Amino acid sequence: MFSRDKWDEILESLSANWFRTLMTSFGVLWGIFILVILLAAGKGLENGIKQGFGGMATNSMFMWTQNTSKSYKGMPKGRYYNFKTGDVQAIKDNVQGLRYVSPRNQLGGFGGSNNVIRGLKSGAFNVYGDYPEIIQQQPMDISSGRFLNYNDLKEKRKVAVIGESVKNTMYETNEEVLGSYIKINGVNFQVIGTYTKKSGGGGDPEEAQKEIFVPFTSFSQAFNMGDVVGWMAITADNNHSITSLKTSVFNVIKKRHDIHLEDDRAIGNFDLYQEFNKISGLFTALNIVAYFVGFLVLASGVIGISNIMLIVVKERTNEIGVRRALGATPGTIRGQILMESVVLTIISGMAGIILATLVLWGINTLLDSMNSSEMMFVNPSVSIGVIIIALLILVLSGLLAGLIPAQNAIRIKPVDALRTE
Fold first, then answer.
1. For residue 129, what are the β-bridge partners?
2. Which of 14, 181, 265, 388 is deepest in the core (most CB within 10 A)?
3. Residue 114 contacts residue 247 (beta carbons within 8 Å)
4. Using one digit for the tens of pLDDT, what is the confidence trace for 106-116?
């Protein structure tokens, strides 16, 4: 029940020596401030790292062929082989839980020779033969026109989607791009779209725009690839992890190409899901460290409040004796001391939360004024759940800080307390 007299007494007690109260409360303020700032910094780093993935489907892996390391069925080790288009359907038929299986072929590479010509201009770009699903696995924003579709694959249309950097290199400013033609290794392709995307892994964002996507079937026909598949991008559905399915995928390939089932070097792979989980584990560890450090700093503040409350109880020994003589119960005395401790702790902690909020607001305002598309630190913040946890910590800390002083207060005998000067 609300008692104005009790609250007036609490405020009077805390303001009796305001400088001592201020210095004591600073420890709790600083502890909560450090806790919130550390958690927000960890979240900002996590947001930046996730942004660096460029929206890629993280439950994915990429796999390619390598030389075999074991002899099998009379064939020597060190044998090289190629994925085939039939492998794609075999994987889909025999491995449950996959969302996309995208065969890919590639021409060019970073630092390669010029492979694209338009009029008097030329450039070296990565050219990919792809299926339409690749835009779901490596998201990009179509800035004009459209992306590849299954009619392009079925009819083996010689069409291309180019990056903004390709456009800037091969075209004049304000020149019409859609409907024009570029020549890739001597074969004409009509441009049907342009795209922009992030680097997808912290690389050079400019290089991410220097790519050209053409239908897989057109690529195979134009560049005499036959049924060869250079590599594959495979994504699992939401109910499975690609890490748990990749062994089954490998086994399908090994059986189709007469590779020993224990030959782990015959198929190269990059498990994006596994790597992403490692990073997620790092963020979990950072949060644990943040809580640990914050609690240590907060504990020092709580100890300071407990010490001050001990002094306050000592100073009010005579007052406590009068109360006991007038009929105050030990529970009433204990409750008063605990209430003062909790109020002081909560006020200090809330001041720390407000200060941390203002600092984070300033940092986010500064980041918003900068180009954060390739930054590794984005939107440092804490959730409302963290604030609730902080408030619970403050209440518990206040109770702990006042517990020993409260117990000391009720041990004082009324007669002994009245004799003190």
1. 105, 214
2. 14
3. no
4. 987 544 566 89
